UniProtKB/TrEMBL annotation:
Entry protein name: Secreted protein
Keywords: Signal
Superkingdom of origin: Bacteria
Signal peptide start-end: 1-23
Length: 292
């Protein structure tokens, strides 16, 4: 979510609840002027509404005893110990081997924070000090299927993602504290406003991107990014392909915003969060897709 409109959402939330006005749309969403998904290789299998304060930043699939569960991050969901330090935004999370990886930012700060929560609930914090050309934005984190490497993205126009050794899971990473970048994933096409990425295989990412619309606003879009050979921490070149537009369905008209996503290789489900526009801005739709 851009720095974006969390404060606006919070204000709307207070006003709506303070006045006792119901801002919720019906559970079965009528189609407005915007349309359903048009994605190459994926078909929609479900949709449900949730509060933006519960799910509006991102989602991860965490493995638990006997199966898995979805872990969401909502607008303003920053732990009090981190908010006391000035961190004020959480990005799209990821999970590997029961560990949950979160990305936190503060506007204008010279570093960004990654927090890893182990299966027992113990947290460890890792800080990346910005290098020349790096941005404070900490929009998302994605951990490779072998749980050895962590990718991270920023905001605006980007031509590369950052590569780190996955904290706590890769022996090359520190136990806690300072985290150093090991390489770049360089893209053959500039991408815009990437809100989240998830590994769909050892050499592929699916990413949500809010692409500027010539008519105004942005268009929630799904990207596929692929490269040759599993990551090893070093620089790698990747190709970007647009798979199409994400659903934009609401009784409210305006610009929708894509948020985080997660692909669960065990079930084959892709979960994507899309935030609604204008007076419906306190609501998100959680969509599920499977491959065609």
């Amino acid at each position: 979510m851009g720095v974006r409109w969390a404060v606006v959402c919070a204000a709307i939330f207070l006003v709506v609840n303070g006045l006792g006005v119901a801002a919720a749309e019906p559970d079965s969403e009528p189609m407005g002027s915007n349309g359903p998904a048009a994605l190459d290789g994926w078909r929609q299998t479900g949709a449900r509404q949730e509060s933006v304060f519960k799910v509006g930043e991102g989602v991860a699939t965490r493995k638990v005893a006997g199966g898995s569960e979805l872990v969401f991050r909502g607008v303003g969901q920053v732990p009090s110990d981190l908010s006391d330090q000035g961190w004020n935004h959480v990005g799209d999370p990821d999970s590997a081997q029961g560990y949950v990886f979160d990305a936190y930012e503060q506007s204008g700060r010279s570093s960004k924070l990654f927090r890893v929560t182990d299966p027992k609930g113990v947290v460890s914090d890792f800080t990346y000090t910005l290098e020349p050309g790096a941005r404070f934005n900490n929009s998302w984190v994605a951990v490779s299927p072998d749980a050895r490497w962590m990718l991270n993205g920023e905001w605006g126009q980007m031509s590369r993602f950052l590569i780190f050794a996955a904290p706590l899971l890769n022996p090359a990473a520190p136990a806690a504290g300072a985290l150093a970048r090991t390489g770049f994933l360089t893209l053959d096409t500039t991408v815009q406003n990437v809100q989240g990425c998830t590994f769909s295989g050892p050499t592929a990412l699916l990413c949500t991107s809010d692409v500027p619309d010539p008519a105004g606003g942005t268009i929630p879009t799904l990207l596929e990014i692929t490269w040759a050979g599993a990551l090893d921490g070093r620089d790698r070149s990747a190709a970007v392909r647009t798979l199409g537009t994400l659903p934009q369905i609401s009784t409210c008209r305006g610009t929708f915003e894509s948020e985080g996503l997660d692909y669960d290789s065990a079930s084959g489900n892709l979960t994507v969060v899309v935030n609604k526009p204008n007076l419906c801005k306190t609501q998100s739709t959680v969509y599920t897709f499977t491959r065609k």
